[in-house]
Amino acid sequence: MTNAPPDPMIGRLIDGRYQVRSRIARGGMATVYLATDLRLERQVAIKIMHGHLADDIVFKERFVQEARSAARLAHPNVVNVFDQGQDSDMAYLVMEYLPGVTLRDLLKDYGKLTTEQTVDVMDAVLGGLAAAHKAGIVHRDLKPENVLLADDGRIKISDFGLARAVSANTATGQALLGTIAYLSPELLTRGTADARSDIYAAGIMMYEMLVGKQPFTGEQPMQIALMHAHDQMPTPSTANPGVPEQLDDLVLWATAKEPDERPTDAREMLERLRTAEIEIVGSRPSSNATQRTMVLPADTFDADLDHAQTQVLEERRRTDPVKTVGAGAAATAGAAGAGVMAAGAGPAGALADGTDIFAGVGATTVYGNSVGAPRAPRPPDGPKEKLARKASSRRKRGFWIFAIVVIIAAALGGGTWYFGAGPGAMTSVPDVAGQSPDSAISTLTALGLEPTRADQSSVTVAAGTVIGTDPASGASVRNGSAISVLVSSGPALLPVPTLNGLAQADAEAAVQSAGFTLADPQREFRDDVPDGIVAASLGADGNQVGLDGAQYPEQQPITLVVSLGPVPDVVGQTLDEAKATLESVGLVGVDGSQDFSDDIPEGSVFEAVRSTDPVRPGDSISLNVSRGPAPVAVPDVIGMTWDKAKPLLADAGFSLDYNFGADLAPGLVRVTGTNPSAGTLAPKGSSISIAFT
């Protein structure tokens, strides 16, 4: 295995200012590196366009234009762009470096997010997106890969619109699939995009955070595109019942097929998200515990101040004779007496000269002045007074909301705790059937129940798997109740009655009454067992059961082997008679060999050979047919005296035909010939004529 060649960009000094340290990521259009800004001594992320795109003038112009667009977005939820330039043949973009992970990495590690986490991430994403839409910028490629989660808790959007500069044939494989998963129907069908296209992508991303997967998936990009264009968008609660109804509605609103049916921009969706969060928090049981930070309704915010950035305010004209800054002077950043508007919430209070600092959501305005310098009265309807009235209104509204929550919590806290989270609370027993015992016990424990394991036999659930619970799933029980987790130990083992030697009907009744099931019986010929009597009983593995007191699992099949009696004896029958006899009992007689037999007449069966053991109906029996006695050679007795020749001929199996006078002596008369002659083959029992001298 060979190592990959080193990246030539590592260690390179770009534009005499940015020292490349390491590579962070590589995409279809550019590669992102970690670099050091030698001039300001800070770490930055520098994105360098791929070399094969450098000759495309249109592409380079879009790269520069998109960089300028992103640089215009000064927002805490948008990655800052510091610089853009050209070094030799490289176009580069210098951005804020955020050590951390992407939302995609978070989803890979945790699958899905909680409702609170989803709302927090979407609040930041929509905030940055709202600033972009207000500036006339459409992201066009919003997806979890472009949402950065910094180690210090900041959430920022990156890559504003840059993906649109990539040609279609450079985005292949997984990159294309990931992009298509978030593209709106109008982008897929008409190729047009506006702020509502970003809203669609935000809705798909919100669904994925709540459920842990995308709503439309498939093997081919075109298949996913058609789903986005035509299929009904599922609600997150269908896949995750814990999702509140308010977020279901928000996702469906954002992912409507027609752009006109979606929020007009991210600001409108953000306001609805914050309203939904209040409704979700308000619907939960109150408690005396510290409440989660709540987002106030949209109408408590000044639309122009929600995301105001640090600004330099013009010095107000003073009317009193004592002042340290000339009237009408414009204060600049870093100059003495400059006025600063700081984004975010700040503490309420006043400067030493009495200048107010307004706390709360939106911008905090500090009008600078020399310490101890007297202040001139301000016009009653000036900007500062308007801000003061708005801040005061927000503080009062927040106070009353908080007061109402405290009163309700104090009045109902005890009862709510007892019946909502305390011993009086009711919990629905979940369905844990089919799980492992440890998993089921963990699930029930997490709900505040006290599960214990109880083994129970089952013929339908595999051993070691949860059958169910007692009380059963769906039942309502009080917190802390004992729950039995019923775990299958497999089928129960039962004794098998003695079945061999019983008539078939009696054996079948004994099997069923003992708790087993009957398989189809086997029938075979047994020479030692009468017809209709059980010769053997077999288990599911084909082995004999019910011997030596052995047990067998309940409701398992038992096969009875029933005897048909002995195979009929057909020896001595003719071949046709033997075949008919065997056919009458379901056997098949087949022609066998032919051989001599001293005992069976010619043409009759002298032997029936079985081809199988045991013999069952349909099996074949070979029938060997007799050719009669075997022929033997006539002994040579010529010249022998009769008393010696006679026993030889008789022992050979022949009958003797001769005329021996009474006056002749057997010991003196000699044989002069035989018919048939000596050595001739003749059947046993045939007659031989004898001649004498």
Automatic annotation (TrEMBL):
It catalyses: L-threonyl-[protein] + ATP = O-phospho-L-threonyl-[protein] + ADP + H(+); L-seryl-[protein] + ATP = O-phospho-L-seryl-[protein] + ADP + H(+). Residues 369-390 are annotated as: Disordered. Residues 18-273 form the Protein kinase domain. Its EC number is 2.7.11.1. It comes from the Bacteria. Pfam families: PASTA, Pkinase. Keywords: ATP-binding, Kinase, Membrane, Nucleotide-binding, Serine/threonine-protein kinase, Transferase, Transmembrane, Transmembrane helix. Residues 427-489, 565-627, 628-693 form the PASTA domain. One of its GO terms (molecular function) is kinase activity. It is an enzyme of class 2 (transferase). The chain crosses the membrane at residues 399-420. PANTHER family: MITOGEN-ACTIVATED PROTEIN KINASE KINASE KINASE 20-RELATED, SERINE_THREONINE-PROTEIN KINASE YBDM-RELATED. NCBIfam families: PknB_PASTA_kin. This is non-specific serine/threonine protein kinase. It comes from Herbiconiux daphne. The gene is pknB.
